[in-house]
Amino acid sequence: MLKIFNTLTRKIEIFKPIKKGKIGLYSCGPTVYDFAHIGNFRSYIFVDLLKRYLKYSGFKVKHVMNITDVDDKTIKNSQQNNKSLQEFTDFYLKAFVKDIESLNIKMPDILPRATEHISEIIDLIKKIGKQGYSYESEKSIYFKISKFSDYGKLAQLDKQKLKHNAFCRLNLSDEYNKEQINDFALWKAYKPEHGKVFWDTSIGKGHPGWHIECSAMSMKYLGETFDIHTGGVDLIFPHHTNEIAQSEAATKKKFVNYWMHNEHLLVQGKKMSKSLGNFYTLRDIKDKGYNLLLMRFILLKTHYRKVLNFTLKDFEKAESTTIKLLDFLINLDSIKSKGKNKLDIKGKISETRDDFKKAMGNDLNISSGLASLFDFMNEINKILKNLNLKQAQEIKKYIMEIDSVLGFIDLLYQKYRKQLSELINNKTIKKMLNQRTKARDNKDYKKADKIRIDLLKKGIVIEDTEKGCNVRLLKMID
After folding, report:
1. Domain spanning 314-409: which CATH class is it, in words?
2. CA separation, residue 187 to residues 143, 198, 207, 208, 300 (Å)
3. What residues have CB less than 8 Å from 330, skipping those under 6 apart?
4. Which of 73, 230, 424, 443 is spaced 20 to 30 A from 107 at the CA atom?
């Protein structure tokens, strides 16, 4: 059973899909006018975790994420860079796709661009007009908020108390003449400063407003009513509020059953700002020498409805935690015994799987989900020396099963194992390891300890056990 917090009701609800076993999922994607920052990627990591867990739970998920490649910002910035709108937005779209791949975020099933759905947008605007919810002013078309009685239900707003530029976003992309200050643009009339960016359509010459794009694309691919819509809390108002108004005004149907929003990401306790020097893209993180899969873990491990305060020191904690996990897998690989024992490993795996599902089924409680995994590892470490090969393989298989949801363990493990193998097989390192083994066999522990310290300086950690020694990396090598 899956329970999720629905922003629409402000309650934890039992999730019930419209169609049994199938889920329509829509995520607000990027506006491709610049590189996305790590705050943006918190949203994309959150929806990736949600999608992975839904699939792990047996659902078939159809995931749509829009690309906003035409709005006031893309038009303005493309002109400032002396590039066509498509050339300009193509560059940042490719960068975005590369970024999400670097974080091992699964690509959406459909990644629609607004510029490729102008006809659907026009049709929806016409439908809204026929229902009496829009009006024209100076060749632009606006949604009449006062006509829609349920306006603001997602953000729990009182329509009569809306203020000019509420949340500092209301008029950011709607700087046109309107009957009411809070009405928003569905279609923006062409102005000379728009240059060559316009569509000559049956409703006029111009380009679509920001909000209408998402409604048109989501309903095209998921239907007039679909299961889940996600985004950051900053989109609750006005973007998602306006999506609901225009969609439900057009169809007279409920637009989305469950709304899920992730909280903000702060950097060193403050909102990201270039002037404060705490603004990071993934390129900035990589240039500082940090592993981007560790960035995934950092963004993943805090519950999506809690504010995440990020600092660069988080990489130290993340690396320490993941190395313990990777060493655990390497130690499992070293088990070769085929002897029988009475350990109930299948029972432990089953119990841990139930704990993981219980945690994640409770509004994606990732903290408890990870705790169940690390508690399991601690239990196994206590009996590691008694395991046989088959049991070790079963444990490793379970870890990778959980990683189908987490999405960072296997890739780090493969890289870690490769780097460890390369170091161990280095001629100098190999010679030192052999010399240490001989020193221990000869009970020359002073020499063995000296070699161990010298190996540590080269990034190799030696741990002596009853059955020999384990070799691991001191830290992740990117």
Report:
1. mainly alpha
2. 9, 11, 6, 5, 38
3. 416, 417, 420, 470, 472
4. 73
CA distances from 399 to 24, 33, 354, 370, 372 (A): 28, 39, 14, 11, 11
Closest CA to 175 of 126, 142, 203: 142
Task: Identify the band that residue 445 occupies on the pLDDT scale cut at 50, 70 and 90.
Answer: confident
Length of the chain: 478
| pTM for the model | 0.92
In this structure, the strands spanning 265-267 and 308-310 are parallel
- CA distances for 95 relative to 27, 84, 243, 281, 282, angstroms: 18, 17, 27, 11, 10
Interval 13-51: pLDDT, tens: 999 999 999 999 999 999 999 999 999 999 999 999 999
Q: Which of 265, 226, 245, 320 is nearest to 43 (CA)?
A: 265
For 3-262, CATH gives: 3.40.50.620
pLDDT at res. 471 = 83
Pair of tokens at residue 374: 């690390």
**Chain segment 351-365, per-residue pLDDT in tens:** 999 999 999 999 999
DSSP 463: E
Q: Which residues contact 37 (CB under 8 A, 6 or more apart)?
A: 272, 279, 280, 281
Q: What are phi and psi of 12, to 5 degrees?
A: -75, 125
Angle between helices 118-130 and 241-251 (to 10 degrees): 70
Whether residue 175 has pLDDT greater than 50: no
- Which tens digits make up the pLDDT trace of 407-426? 999 999 999 999 888 888 88
